[in-house]
Write a sequence for this structure.
């Protein structure tokens, strides 16, 4: 112990404020309600926003309901989009075809050239046509305003589609805070015990973050990491062992092993740096968004630390006043199925502009049937917006005309790429941290 | 560095003789030095003996290919230069591990370290070790605090329960402890009663035991050491725990029952105190594993899982099955010692039961409610309808206890003989879902009724439904009690003249079985 007297670098710290209350389901009581409330709340809430947006753009145009449209008059209609998709899987079709000889084709993406958009409000629905309508960019559930007129055949000819745009953003605090570099580390898709996961790689990450790895310079860099967020899919459970029958004791071992391994790593992490863990689509948490925190019983080792925090799936928090919002990727993955974009970051950007991080819920994305609000509406724009479990690391600094700045990050699956992402809270700079053991492997060949 | 020099040979030995992978982290934990110190140590070793070793370096720096990427690589010595060329700016290089040869799977570098950290992880949760406080890292974090209090409490609790279970392989839910705790008081009371009725010497022994009772380990030892007489009384607190654990095989529910049973048993045991050398042994055997089985890791990690398992078992009725496992050995016993009634709860003292069995059996059988035999009746509230009958029984039991307590094993056994005996019957059937369900059912029998066993099994198979198991236990007590109050209750089928005479009981059983058939038909 005496040797330990050698000076240790103090880790930088940042004030952490979780903002997950929005996503906490404990206050909710399920009484058999359906999803209509959710759509209603969404439309109601975003209508206010869109009305002001539309009136700024077209001060003279009137805002009308769909039933109140008059043919040929330029006006604004606000409503929820429904995207008619011929490839969209329907449970009825699937049932019918399941029984037939022809196998089901399950395309990766359900977008088709014939898709079109329908706008819906409380009074009715109308099909949107026009050159400015790009069905591929939109999905069901998005609330927008359209400027245009009703055509002769009962369609709405759109001259412009208006989105809510970025939500108001809190003051970015960076300059005030002494200009220190502080990093938040984002990682997702650890999938411990998965066949493709490399435990050594993960251990390297843990060693790096906890300040074991590297020389003094590297360790001083590690000391600047003030927070670690594990964004979903942290374990690889063999769900096939859960058959509804009692589980054999040896199988129980197999089931528990990934969680044990994760707990061990989390213990090391939490002992060194504040760590949040979010549930993901394959984690032992509820399926529908918002996913509730992984239970502390899963992590007997890590959960005793004050620095360990089990978060909800859309996870929102503030570090030194920098607002950070992220998901484990389900919302973006679902957008990827029902719309088209060049990159995951572009999907993310759209959700910010729509002011809704999961518009496809509850249509194609599991979601709790809220009755009083829509928790996925963005009332405040984050400074850092990340999305876990993506194929590759992408990032973009999004700036709108009013000076709002958001760092968008698509966090790759760690088990596939060995990449974690470090974001500088001072200036939203972002770089990847790649941990690799490949050169060991290739040596053997 | 002086130390470093000292340590070189053992490191070399580890690598070259044990063919082990020595990574800097492993080394730092092993020798309790900081990570950086450990790296230097490895460097020393490599400098002196590098020719015989394969060295893996950790190389990190800004990637040339992607300026926005900080890259950390593990590379073998032969590729060190290549790796450096891929990086720019400040490059950090240090030895990650040394090993006799490069493993085919890089993950092998990790496994030694993992095993080590697992060991640290398993240590009792209130212990701070280098895994838990990250003390060997070069970066300290003042924000980290471990709230050992609550969690650790649960953790320790789980340990207590888990230890015994560990032996049996089934961990017991934490709740077990709580349950066990209440049991003590009743037991004590019972002891008091027994004292009154029984011999003074016995009492003293008990009191001693009580004192010891709190520490589980002591119990185990004491139970082994002391004669049979003391045993039953002595264990009140701890015994109950252990027993529960032993019972632990079943699901959590079963545990509850088991505990209830266990409580009773000790009490009863006291009464006959001298009775059962066998029982004593058995118990000791049960207890014995406790000290050895140190499952701390399991409990820590899978405390949660345990609970789950319990649930699963309950659902699937696995409890019964588990019991069966134990019983398999018992089955023979059952035949051999027909007299003895074995309670569902556990493979426990066969001899004691016959006498006491009435009460304990009830408990064990499945009333969630712990029925305290003597105490209860006197104290307050027997849960079961059959109170009256119980009272009667209880009286009997007391009498016996008093008789037996003084000394005579024989006396007790004889006393027990006349009474109805409960027998454990295994029934196997295929349920609606096609699963094979084996259930354990207690039946009252006279000793003579051994013959019936087969019949019982077959006959019961037909009807035993999920509910039955529970019902039957209830019935049994009734039957015994019947002597006073013909417990017509639920057990129409079983209702046998619960008279203590062997013959009658026998007849009754048979009659019951046959009646059963009739009903069915």
């Amino acid at each position: 112990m005496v040797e330990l007297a050698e000076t240790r670098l103090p880790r930088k710290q940042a004030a952490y404020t979780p903002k997950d209350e929005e996503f906490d389901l404990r206050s909710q009581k399920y009484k058999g309600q359906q999803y209509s409330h959710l759509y209603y709340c969404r439309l109601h809430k975003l209508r206010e926003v869109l009305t002001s947006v539309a009136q700024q753009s077209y001060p003279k145009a009137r805002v009308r309901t769909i039933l109140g449209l008059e043919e040929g008059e330029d006006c604004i209609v606000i409503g929820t989009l429904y995207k008619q998709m011929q490839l969209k899987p329907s449970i009825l079709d699937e049932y019918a075809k399941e029984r037939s000889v022809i196998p089901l084709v399950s395309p990766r993406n359900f977008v088709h050239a014939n898709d079109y958009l329908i706008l819906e409000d409380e009074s009715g629905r109308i099909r949107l046509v026009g050159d400015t309508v790009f069905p591929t960019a939109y999905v069901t559930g998005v609330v927008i305003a359209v400027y245009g007129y009703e055509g002769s055949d009962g369609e709405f000819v759109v001259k412009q589609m208006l989105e809510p745009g970025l939500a108001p953003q809190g003051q970015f605090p960076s300059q005030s805070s002494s200009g220190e570099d502080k990093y938040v580390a984002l990682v997702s898709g650890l999938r411990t015990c998965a066949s493709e996961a490399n435990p050594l790689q993960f251990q390297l990450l843990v060693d790096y973050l906890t300040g074991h790895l590297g020389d003094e310079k590297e360790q001083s860099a590690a000391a600047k990491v003030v927070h670690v967020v594990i964004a979903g899919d942290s374990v690889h459970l063999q769900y096939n062992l859960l058959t509804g029958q009692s589980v054999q004791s040896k199988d129980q071992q197999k089931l528990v092993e990934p969680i044990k391994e994760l707990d061990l790593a989390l213990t090391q992490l939490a002992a060194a740096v504040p760590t949040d863990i979010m549930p993901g689509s394959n984690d032992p948490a509820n399926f529908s968004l918002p996913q509730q925190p992984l239970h502390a019983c899963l992590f007997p080792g890590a959960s005793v630390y004050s620095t360990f925090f089990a978060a909800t799936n859309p996870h929102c928090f503030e570090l030194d006043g920098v607002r950070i919002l992220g998901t484990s990727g389900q919302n973006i993955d679902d957008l990827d199925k029902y719309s088209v974009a060049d990159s995951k970051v572009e999907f993310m950007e759209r959700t910010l502009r729509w002011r809704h991080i999961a518009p496809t819920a509850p249509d194609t994305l599991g979601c709790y049937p809220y009755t009083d609000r829509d928790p996925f509406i963005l009332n405040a724009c984050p400074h850092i917006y990340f999305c876990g479990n993506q194929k590759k690391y992408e990032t973009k600094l999004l700036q709108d005309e009013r000076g709002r700045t958001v760092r968008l990050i698509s966090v790759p699956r760690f088990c596939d790429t060995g990449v974690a992402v470090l974001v500088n809270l001072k200036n939203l700079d972002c770089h990847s941290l790649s941990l690799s053991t490949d050169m060991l492997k290739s040596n053997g060949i | 560095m002086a130390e470093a020099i000292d340590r070189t040979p053992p490191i070399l030995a580890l690598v070259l003789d044990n063919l082990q992978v020595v990574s800097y982290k492993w080394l730092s934990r092993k020798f309790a030095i900081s990570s950086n110190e450990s790296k230097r140590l490895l460097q020393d070793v490599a400098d002196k003996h590098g020719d015989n070793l394969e060295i893996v370096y950790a190389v990190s720096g800004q990637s040339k290919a992607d300026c926005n990427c900080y890259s950390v690589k593990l590379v073998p010595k032969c590729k060190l230069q290549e790796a450096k060329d891929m990086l720019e700016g400040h490059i950090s290089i240090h030895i990650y591990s040394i090993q006799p040869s490069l493993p085919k799977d890089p993950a092998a570098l990790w496994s030694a370290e993992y095993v080590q950290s697992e060991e640290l992880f398993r240590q009792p949760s209130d212990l701070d070790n280098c895994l838990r406080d990250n003390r060997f890292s070069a970066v300290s974090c003042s924000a980290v605090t471990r709230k050992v209090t609550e969690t650790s409490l649960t953790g320790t609790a789980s340990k207590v329960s888990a230890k015994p279970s560990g032996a049996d392989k089934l961990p017991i839910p934490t709740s077990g402890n709580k349950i066990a705790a209440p049991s003590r008081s009743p037991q004590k009371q019972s002891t008091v009663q027994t004292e009154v009725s029984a011999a003074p010497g016995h009492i003293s022994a008990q009191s001693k035991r009580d004192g010891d009772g709190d520490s589980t380990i002591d119990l185990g030892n004491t139970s082994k050491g002391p004669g049979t007489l003391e045993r039953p009384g002595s264990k009140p607190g701890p015994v109950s725990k252990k027993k529960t654990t032993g019972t632990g095989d079943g699901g959590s529910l079963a545990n509850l029952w088991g505990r209830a049973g266990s409580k009773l048993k000790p009490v009863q045991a006291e009464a006959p105190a001298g009775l059962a050398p066998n029982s004593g042994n058995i118990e000791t055997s049960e207890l014995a594993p406790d000290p050895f089985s140190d499952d701390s890791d399991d409990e820590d990690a899978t405390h949660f899982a345990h609970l789950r398992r319990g649930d699963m078992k309950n659902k699937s009725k696995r409890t019964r099955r588990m019991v069966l496992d134990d019983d398999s050995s018992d089955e023979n016993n059952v035949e051999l010692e027909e007299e003895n009634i074995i309670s569902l709860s556990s493979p426990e003292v066969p001899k004691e039961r016959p006498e006491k069995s009435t009460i304990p059996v009830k408990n064990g059988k499945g009333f969630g409610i712990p029925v305290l035999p003597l105490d209860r009746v006197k104290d307050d509230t027997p849960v079961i309808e059959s109170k009256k009958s119980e009272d009667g029984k209880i009286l009997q039991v007391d009498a016996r206890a008093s008789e037996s307590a003084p000394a005579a094993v024989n006396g007790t056994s004889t006393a027990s003989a006349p009474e109805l005996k409960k027998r454990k019957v295994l029934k196997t059937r295929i349920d609606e879902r096609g699963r094979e369900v084996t259930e354990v059912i207690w039946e009252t029998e006279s000793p003579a009724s051994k013959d019936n066993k087969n019949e019982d099994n077959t006959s019961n198979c037909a009807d035993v439904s999920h509910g039955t198991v529970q019902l039957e236990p209830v019935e049994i007590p009734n039957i015994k009690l019947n002597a006073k109050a013909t417990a017509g209750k639920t057990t129409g089928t079983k209702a046998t003249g619960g008279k203590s005479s062997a013959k009658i009981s026998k007849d009754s059983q048979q009659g019951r079985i046959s009646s059963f058939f009739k009903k069915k038909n």
